[in-house]
Sequence to fold (428 residues):
Amino acid sequence: MERISNYYTATLNDTVEYPPLDGDITVDIAIVGGGLTGVASAVEFAERGFSVALCEANRIGWGASGRNGGQVTGSLSGDKAMLAQLRKKQGVDAEDFVWHLRWEGHNIIRERIARYDIACDLTPGHLHTAWRTADIAELKQTVDTAHSYGMEDDVSWLTKEEVHDKLDTPLYHGGILNKRSFHLHSLNLCVGEACAAASLGAQLFEQTPVVKLVGGRSPKLITSNGTIHAKKIILAGNAYHRLARKQLKGLLFPAILGNMTTEPLSDELAQQINKHNLAVYDSRMVLDYYRLTADNRLMFGGGTNYSGRDIQDVAKTLMPALVNTFPALANTKIDYAWTGTAGIVMNRIPLVGKCDRHVYYAQGYSGHGIATSHILAEVLAEALTGTLEKFDVFADFKHNKVPGTEWLGNGMLALGMWYYQFKEKLAG
Ligand SMILES: Cc1cc2nc3c(=O)[nH]c(=O)nc-3n(C[C@H](O)[C@H](O)[C@H](O)COP(=O)(O)OP(=O)(O)OC[C@H]3O[C@@H](n4cnc5c(N)ncnc54)[C@H](O)[C@@H]3O)c2cc1C
Fold:
């Protein structure tokens, strides 16, 4: 399938097409999926001198990586659950491990963009706003932690008045300003990284769904027109793949997220609503997220549907929240509205591990995958070159499989999320 029509595809820099696989090949590393996890892994392995082949069922960046909010923040999904599990272990300084992990993806992305000259509108600045006064204490605690790690210059607390000086909104009771975080054009990043991998000799195949995975001693990926024999296989299909069900079923659930962009705003209006072009999300469990694009549109997302079913009319669903946030945009036209599927894990800790000796996977970033995909691509590359430290930490995290069908899993997730939303509504 071609990429869906959205803001990202309409402003894509590089329209290069990679051919479908035709015939049999042999490589060191074979990757399933051409989203950020797949292409970042391709770069990591190719940079280390491995021969790499990547199969993408549709087009590079067709999935969540070409549809997301573009926010690269310090939010690491599952951080609290990670801390709880790590504190019980000997030999790992839980707080340090999780804190440093938060920022590793930022560094990898910045370096990669610089090294391969990827034009993807990187814009610094993120604001994590307090939706309720009750959220202030926990957010301020995060600021204190950041300062204890020497991030005084990058992270600061903004009062309600200071937030309202930056955003023309009646919402929020304060917020964390983070200058280390940023936002970017996720599809241009993904396609740019694919191009970087190809320049290093990686073979990329689009319109090439992997129909069968064979593990064991002679691992291979089987497609309708050819087979890739590999020493190691990386599964990077996230919420869209159905491979290795025996090992992975019941661990990851698809959540449909809506996203949209307005028509381009005048410079004055863009300045008025978001003076410093910050990426913003709020402190709710099911949150709204937004930012300006390089051509002055407001990109606004939210309205998560955890049932696994598509959102029927994204613009209609999201418009009340957008107008509630920025009343000045009440009459603004929506040019693009779309959905994408994120992989949600019950305890939110990303799923990283091995299905067998030669088949690895990284998936399930619970809506925070731009940085995480890059962190885990590096973790996988390090693991396969002998540094197992971080891989082992991830692979050892406990995850509960939800018994029964995938539908039952999503039903439970939907119920859990409905409960959180209901609680947040009651709390105002
Ligand atoms: C609307 C939305 C907003 C989001 N906003 C943010 C945000 O602001 N910040 C953030 O950090 N994260 C955000 N996320 C999450 C982030 O986009 C994802 O975590 C990340 O893109 C996952 O990358 P991935 O490569 O693992 O998966 P994907 O990008 O989904 O890629 C998986 C790819 O695998 C391919 N594939 C699947 N099965 C096969 C097969 N059998 N053979 C070959 N190919 C296959 C698919 O076609 C797909 O292209 C958002 C997600 C959504 C949906």
Notes: The first strand starts at residue 25 and ends at 32. The CA atoms of residues 160 and 174 lie 4 Å apart. The mean pLDDT is 93. The chain is about 35% helix and 25% strand.
